[in-house]
């Protein structure tokens, strides 16, 4: 790798979403790989911070509390504790770039600069850091990975086994019906229809939150949820949900995943791994802004100018299409199985 080696690296991700942190994981792991022996610290929010526990690439996690002005204060505390010689941030509010620049560290403070609409966010991060001489070419192919301990995986297996029928003849499908923003939610009727069709095929259906007619995972922290996703992966099953942090987490622990995209464009916000199938609702929506999603008319309150009943892009995704995509994903993983969808799918 060309360029200087750094000994103390500070990475700041305070965008607030779990998915934002998962998209940054390849950059975190790439920096650790390219600067072996460096102390790598991360400033981020809870509960996403839990994903970095037990990650061998991360030396320390600084958890920033929620609230006005707390992001900049958390960065200032991390700088006061130890001055880095390299600082990288996805976050530009609360004077964070200025704080990092004043530390004297080499800074990369704009990982969003000039994004094309057809480059994945995580790939863009890696490309910029590579162009800055901070990553080797081998890092450009990294994808998000979350490390789990054996005892965590065992608990996930136990949780899943307690909810599945005995015997289990088909791989389980775990639904993630909720989303952090209303604009990303698939309609409840669509979830019910999907659960019913999968059940007709004999697939055990589970759900992360109540809603679809299926057993619900018991409450647990984020790492326990990741372990349940890993248990689904080990059993050859699939996870289905919208463009949300938990769905990205499922892919990051190796689960086959079907991701439903509406207001965000899959070519920009897709998960970018072979074990994922993405479905884009209303691909020609005239109001979508792939590189400025927070400026979309629907973004903050889910008021869609094309439909009085909620986001037209999410309603455009047909449950039968989702069921077929799940089946094709599972068939690709287990070619010996000869599953067939009912005609009405």
Automatic annotation (TrEMBL):
What organism is listed for this UniProt entry?
A: Micromonospora qiuiae
Q: One Pfam match, by short name?
A: Glyco_transf_9
Q: What InterPro entries does the entry give?
A: Glyco_trans_9, LPS_LOS_Heptosyltrfase
Q: Which CDD domains match?
A: GT9_LPS_heptosyltransferase
Secretion signal span:
none
Q: Which domain of life is it from?
A: Bacteria
Keywords, comma-separated and alphabetical: Glycosyltransferase, Transferase
Q: Any idea what this protein is called?
A: Heptosyltransferase
Name the Gene3D superfamilies for this protein.
Glycogen Phosphorylase B (3.40.50.2000)
């Amino acid at each position: 790798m060309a360029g200087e080696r750094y000994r103390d690296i500070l990475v700041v991700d305070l965008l607030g979403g779990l998915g934002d942190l998962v998209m940054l994981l390849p950059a975190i792991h790439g920096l650790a790989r390219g600067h072996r022996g460096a102390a790598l610290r991360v400033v981020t929010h809870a509960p996403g911070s839990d994903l970095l526990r037990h990650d061998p690439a991360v030396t320390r996690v600084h958890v920033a509390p929620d609230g006005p002005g707390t992001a900049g204060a958390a960065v200032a505390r991390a700088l006061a504790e130890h001055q880095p010689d390299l600082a990288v941030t996805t976050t530009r509010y609360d004077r964070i770039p200025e704080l990092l620049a004043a530390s004297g560290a080499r800074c990369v403070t704009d990982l969003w600069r000039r994004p094309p609409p057809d480059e994945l966010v995580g790939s863009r991060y890696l490309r910029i850091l590579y162009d800055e001489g901070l990553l080797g070419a081998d890092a450009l192919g990294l994808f998000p990975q979350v490390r789990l301990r054996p005892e965590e995986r065992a608990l996930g297996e136990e949780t899943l086994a307690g909810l599945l029928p005995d015997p289990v003849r088909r791989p389980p499908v775990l639904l993630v019906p909720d989303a952090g923003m209303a604009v990303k939610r698939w309609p409840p009727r669509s979830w019910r229809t999907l659960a019913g069709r999968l059940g007709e095929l004999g697939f055990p259906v589970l759900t992360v939150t109540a809603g679809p007619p299926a057993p619900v995972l018991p409450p647990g922290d984020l790492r326990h949820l990741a372990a349940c996703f890993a248990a689904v992966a080990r059993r050859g099953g699939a996870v289905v949900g919208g463009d949300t942090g938990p769905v990205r987490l499922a892919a990051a622990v190796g689960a086959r995943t079907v991701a439903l995209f509406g207001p965000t464009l899959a070519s920009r916000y897709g998960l970018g791994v072979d074990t994922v199938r993405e479905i884009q609702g209303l691909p020609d929506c005239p109001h979508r802004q792939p590189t400025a999603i927070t400026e979309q008319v629907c973004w903050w309150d889910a008021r869609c100018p094309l439909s009085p009943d909620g986001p037209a892009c999410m309603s455009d995704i047909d449950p039968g299409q989702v069921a077929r995509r799940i089946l094709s994903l599972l068939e690709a993983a287990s070619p010996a199985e000869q599953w067939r969808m009912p005609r009405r799918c």
